[in-house]
Amino acid sequence: MGRTVPSFRPALEHEIESWKDFKRALRPDEQKIFDKLMNFARIHADAGSMSARPMLSEVLFISFAVEQEKKIEMLEEKVKELEEMIKGID
To answer: Residue 43 in contact with residue 16, Cβ under 8 Å?
Structure first.
């Protein structure tokens, strides 16, 4: 049987490619951030393929949110550790 829905990874790459004009309009430092965000979506492609979301951009955005939340939690933990170190010095 033939597939009527393209496999997820090529569809994701097509979605990322569709943002190329937006990326081109960004400053060079912002383009690096844009690429980093798109890589987050690639990292979570397995989860995205299981989500059955009709709009691939939803997968992009939730991937960004997951990775940013991981970074926030890591930074909060580092702040907590530093605060505890400072309290120990006093």
So the answer is: no
